[in-house]
Amino acid sequence: MRPFLYRNACTELATARAPLRHGDVFRLSEKNQLRTVDEKIKNPAPARAAVEEAGKVALKDLDVQGITALVVSLAEKPFRARQIAEWLFQHNVSSFEQMTNLPKAFRDKLRQHALIDTLSPAYEQRSQTDGTRKFLFRLRDGLKIESVLMFDEERVTLCISTQVGCALDCRFCATGLMGLQRHLTPGEIIDQVLLSERIAGVRITNLVVMGMGEPLHNYDNLMQALSVLTSPQGFALSKKRVVVSTSGLVAKIERLIAEGRKYRLAISLNATTDAMRSKLMPVNQRWPISELLAAARNYADASKTRITIEYVLLDGMNDTPEDARRLMKLVTGLRCKVNLIPYNTTYREFARPAEERILRFYREMKNCPVPVTIRWSKGRDIDAACGQLITKEQGT
Fold first, then answer.
1. Catalytic residue among 146, 188, 214, 349
2. Residue 166 annotated among the catalytic residues of the structure
3. Which of 63, 151, 252, 295 is the most buried (most CB within 10 A)?
4. Active site residue 30
5. Taking Cα atoms as reference points, which of 224, 312, 223, 226 lies closest to residue 267?
6. What is the pTM of this model?
7. Which residues lie across from 311 on neighbouring strands?
8. Per-residue pLDDT tens for 242-279?
């Protein structure tokens, strides 16, 4: 069986554009880059609280202290906050009526002042070949995001989004063409997990933060959400089973180190020279490859985890034997593994290499001192790792 790819929904969000030649991609993107990387990162679109009506608060947007403060404001004892959290994150309830160890009068108060779910299921597609399921969720302000549920033997992996759109404008990523519409709130990140479990009737064992958006750009909300999802009093997912991907926000990687975070980190590298990476990923103009890999090395050492280096193979761009040899040199000495990801040709700006070119690149790295894997995708019959569905929905 071929290994499967934890695909990044960001890399394939479908868009209606005229076909471009490879050289045109760079010229178009340079023209559209209106702000520097620093400006985009320092001036993010705010995450709007998901409210059903004026005065209601989304419980999953609150941390423990926030839930406790709400409970006290409703003239209840603080220990009720722990009970509420258990119902939300351990029992995954969808209504206050299910919180049976809370007094009915208190449940009525909660119904008046708070809401449980921050998003709702809008559409689902299921692969006929491997069972992969793609969920389109509607946020309470009408925007939409995707999550993808994947199955592999005993593992049930969910890929989640952190933003609506993205500010970083990676050249092979259509999500960047949307711009950053807004960050997701902690509750909206958490609810992708809870609603996916509720819909599918399965227990999620692994989480990959590789969907729409740059996860570390929405740092505070993501960390709050992951704290709940990995807390023994919350969703109780092991931190070793959580992978956070980044295009290379070195300052945020350094913050992960400073705060002692232990999540597994995936670096979206995709090029072996600064010249090519800066063309493909403008973030490289702010943090070049040497700085990014130094930060990755520091994180691996501090967290005692192994970094995943993601390398999307683009036909004629970054898939030569010379690229393979440079990549092997770059990762030597780094506690990591390398995932070679053949590009899924959703668009015509870039092309997926022929299988022989993919295998040639892989063979060129046979002497690499770290593990190297080709990640073939699951759910290709439904574009499970891409964003076509959301584009269709938004266009209706």
1. 146
2. no
3. 295
4. no
5. 312
6. 0.86
7. 340
8. 999 999 999 999 999 999 999 999 999 999 999 999 99
